[in-house]
């Protein structure tokens, strides 16, 4: 059993004991019911307290049992709550630290609730595309009111317990240890004659419920966009105005509807994908990690500064190394400006700004960084420059220091070969702006030590990044795939589309930004330089020349006020440019292509299926260990729509047979060689399977 039972001074204490957050798995639910049975059968017991061991009252459902038969095995949480409500003896919830989801619903099923100050209270199911499924939408409005409950349930936001002082959610809110206070409270109510209150018997009152709900529906619909769960949550809360059992039935129907939606599947896929990404198949849990107490960053440019901020935010001292004092001063100035801007917006106190800046030091000498536990190189993306830096690091850094490169495309094995300690070398590819973007691609070289990988994954968690491990290949997971996406975007221009149509089609699909707007933001000259470099090694590489022609026109993007689009000073809105469109049309003529009308559907299929096909190759080659890792890269680093779950899950939902069929159709068209179906994709399609099982 994952619930403990003991009796203290006439009070039975049932303690949920299912680390780390006392998830309400089958064994825990069974333990609660058995504890209740013992308490009700014991004449010496006058009241019952339910609490949680360790760092939580309960975090809700046990995620280890999601999508398993145990999740719905009796007693379900509904059944457990019915046992609590049927109790002839008063039941008191002793809430501390965290009461979320099913944990809060369990507490709402008790007669009384005593909470410690600062306990985090939430019904966060909406974040998984669901709604609370064990009466939360019906009981919470009965204790805190219709509007407050709607706000909590629709947003999924956690609220500290003291905010509920004066409501019927908590009968007492105490400082310090909640259990003694709850036992004392239970003794008092146990000595009193019943009946004891039940949340289900309360009425929801509101002076103008229909007026409020009409306003709320419009607000939530505008906010929710592609996600059905927020509106369903609101409708379920509205059901609390009805008799309890009717509202409960409405909640159940809403839950069963949402659990089958592709949007909920996508959100759950992302939730579990993030956790799965931290597990590396051949690096066991418990692998020793190295202490990272001091970090050095080589380069004070945009990336170096952003990378440094991640560590400063986590309280880890950073030393930035540069070759010139002016570069250091400029970089430190930008870091301070970023923090000052956050302070102006109320996100940081001035004290925090100074605290973080106090952790930052600068130097022009490698001698000043030799004792760092980890050094991250963020210099120009050119192998010769990397060679110089890593040879110097090998010479000066202490033994056991982790030597990381922020390279976005270069061979980490080659970089490691510049040192006599390849086991200490790893890729840490941050995404720009590095202090904002969640993704960190951790690039594993052939000789990278398992302890180094384990350490970097732990560090990533500390600096609040979603880390995904990639093997070594040109572009790793993200940039290797985006190259195929960009290639198709260029071919679409050659064949008849214009930048605005392509961008609008993929943005309507859900991308944050289309390929041409993205190119303008990143700088078209960056891709131009990469194509020139690759042309030396792969002179036969195929791609549309429109991007090169654009750069030859001096149109590098937003930084020059002109790229695929025009930009006005201080305005990031893209304005189509006729000269660019004329260049595209003329290039088609030069190629002998008769331009044709291209549908938005074709644009979306070609861009997304290009990602999918390359993703299948990456899986087959072992560059990524699982499809969900690829999806996490695209959800957290490339603006792929969250409600679609990532390219690989999206392909599963379309059906791999249909994806392969579309690819074969495109293989008969312009640059058909790009549409050779990846063997893994074809194999899974033939077997009627998906990338995610």
Automatic annotation (TrEMBL):
Note whether Translocase occurs among the keywords.
Answer: no
Report keywords, A-Z. Fatty acid metabolism, Isomerase, Lipid degradation, Lipid metabolism, Lyase, Multifunctional enzyme, NAD, Oxidoreductase, Peroxisome
| Xref: Pfam families | 3HCDH, 3HCDH_N, ECH_1
Where does the protein principally reside?
Answer: other
- Please give the superkingdom of this protein's source: Bacteria
User: Which pathway is it part of?
Assistant: Lipid metabolism; fatty acid beta-oxidation
Tell whether Chloroplast is among the UniProt keywords.
no
3-hydroxyacyl-CoA dehydrogenase NAD binding domain span = 294-470
Question: Example GO biological process term?
Answer: fatty acid beta-oxidation
Instruction: Quote the catalytic activity from the record.
Output: a (3S)-3-hydroxyacyl-CoA + NAD(+) = a 3-oxoacyl-CoA + NADH + H(+)
State the SUPFAM superfamilies in the record: 6-phosphogluconate dehydrogenase C-terminal domain-like, ClpP/crotonase, NAD(P)-binding Rossmann-fold domains
What GO molecular functions are on record for this protein?
Answer: (3S)-3-hydroxyacyl-CoA dehydrogenase (NAD+) activity; enoyl-CoA hydratase activity; isomerase activity; NAD+ binding
Q: Where is the 3-hydroxyacyl-CoA dehydrogenase C-terminal domain?
A: 475-567, 603-689
Q: Where in the cell is it found?
A: Peroxisome
Query: Which InterPro entries does this UniProt record tie to the protein?
Result: 3-OHacyl-CoA_DH_NAD-bd, 3HC_DH_C, 6-PGluconate_DH-like_C_sf, ClpP/crotonase-like_dom_sf, Enoyl-CoA_hydra/iso, NAD(P)-bd_dom_sf
Q: Which Gene3D superfamilies match?
A: 1.10.1040.50, 2-enoyl-CoA Hydratase, Chain A, domain 1 (3.90.226.10), NAD(P)-binding Rossmann-like Domain (3.40.50.720)
Q: What is this protein called?
A: 3-hydroxyacyl-CoA dehydrogenase
Taxonomic lineage of the native organism: Bacteria, Pseudomonadati, Pseudomonadota, Betaproteobacteria, Burkholderiales
């Amino acid at each position: 059993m994952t619930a403990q039972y003991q009796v203290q001074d006439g009070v039975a204490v049932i303690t949920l004991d299912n680390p780390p957050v006392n998830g309400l798995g089958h064994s825990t639910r069974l333990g609660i019911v058995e504890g209740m049975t013992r308490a009700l059968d014991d004449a010496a017991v006058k009241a019952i307290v339910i609490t949680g061991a360790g760092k939580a009252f309960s975090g809700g459902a046990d995620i280890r049992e999601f999508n398993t038969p145990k999740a719905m095995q009796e007693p379900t949480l509904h059944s457990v709550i019915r046992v609590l409500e049927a109790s002839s003896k008063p039941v008191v919830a002793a809430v501390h630290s965290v009461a979320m989801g099913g944990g809060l619903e369990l507490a709402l099923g008790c007669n009384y609730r005593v909470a410690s100050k600062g306990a985090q209270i939430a019904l966060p199911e909406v974040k998984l595309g669901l709604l609370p499924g064990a009466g939360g939408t019906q009981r919470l409005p009965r204790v805190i009111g219709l509007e407050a409950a709607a706000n909590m349930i629709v947003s999924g936001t956690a609220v500290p317990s003291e905010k509920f002082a004066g409501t019927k959610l908590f009968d007492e809110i105490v400082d310090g240890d909640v259990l003694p206070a709850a036992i004392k409270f239970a003794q008092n109510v146990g000595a009193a004659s019943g009946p004891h209150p039940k949340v289900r018997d309360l009425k929801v009152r509101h002076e103008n419920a229909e007026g409020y709900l009409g306003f709320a529906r419009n607000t939530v619909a505008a906010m929710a966009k592609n996600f059905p769960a927020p509106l369903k949550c609101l409708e379920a809360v509205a059901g609390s105005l009805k008799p309890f059992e009717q509202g409960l039935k409405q909640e159940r129907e809403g839950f069963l509807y949402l659990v089958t939606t592709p949007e909920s599947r996508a959100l759950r896929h992302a939730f579990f994908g993030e956790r799965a990404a931290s597990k590396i198949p051949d690096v066991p849990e418990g692998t020793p990690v190295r202490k990272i107490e001091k970090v050095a960053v080589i380069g004070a440019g945009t990336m170096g500064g952003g990378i440094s901020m991640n560590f400063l935010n986590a309280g880890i001292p950073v030393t930035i190394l540069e070759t010139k004092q002016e570069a250091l001063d400029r970089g430190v100035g930008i870091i301070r400006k970023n923090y000052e801007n956050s302070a102006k917006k109320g996100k940081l106190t001035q004290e925090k700004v100074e605290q973080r800046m106090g952790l930052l030091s600068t130097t022009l000498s490698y001698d000043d960084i030799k004792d760092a536990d980890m050094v991250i190189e963020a210099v120009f993306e050119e192998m010769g420059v990397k060679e110089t830096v890593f040879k110097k690091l090998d010479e000066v850094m202490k033994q056991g220091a982790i030597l990381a490169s922020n390279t976005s495309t270069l061979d980490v094995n080659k970089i490691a070969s510049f040192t006599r300690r390849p086991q200490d070398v790893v890729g840490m590819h941050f995404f720009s702006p590095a202090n904002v973007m969640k993704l960190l691609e951790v690039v594993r070289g052939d000789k990278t030590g398992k302890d180094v990988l384990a350490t970097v994954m732990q560090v990533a968690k500390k600096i609040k990044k979603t880390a995904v491990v990639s093997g070594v290949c040109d572009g790793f997971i993200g940039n290797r795939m985006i190259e195929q996406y960009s290639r198709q975007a260029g071919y679409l221009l050659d064949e008849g589309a214009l930048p605005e149509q392509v961008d609008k089609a993929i943005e309507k699909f859900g991308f944050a930004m289309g390929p041409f707007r993205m190119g303008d933001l990143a700088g078209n000259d960056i891709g131009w330089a990469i194509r020139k470099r690759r042309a030396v090694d792969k002179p036969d590489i195929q791609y549309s020349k429109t991007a090169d022609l654009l750069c030859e026109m001096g149109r590098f993007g937003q930084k020059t006020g002109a790229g695929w689009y025009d930009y006005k000073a201080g305005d990031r809105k893209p304005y189509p440019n006729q000269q660019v469109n004329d260049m595209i049309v003329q290039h088609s003529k030069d190629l002998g292509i008769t331009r044709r009308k291209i549908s938005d559907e074709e644009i979306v299929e070609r861009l997304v299926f290009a990602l999918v096909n390359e993703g299948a190759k990456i899986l087959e080659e072992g560059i990524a260990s699982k499809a969900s890792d690829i999806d996490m890269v695209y959800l957290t680093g490339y603006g792929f729509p969250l409600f679609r779950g990532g390219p690989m899950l999206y392909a599963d939902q379309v059906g791999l047979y249909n994806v392969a069929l579309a690819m074969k159709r495109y293989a008969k068209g312009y640059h058909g060689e790009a549409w050779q179906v990846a063997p893994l994709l074809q194999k899974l399609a033939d077997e009627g399977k998906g990338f995610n099982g």
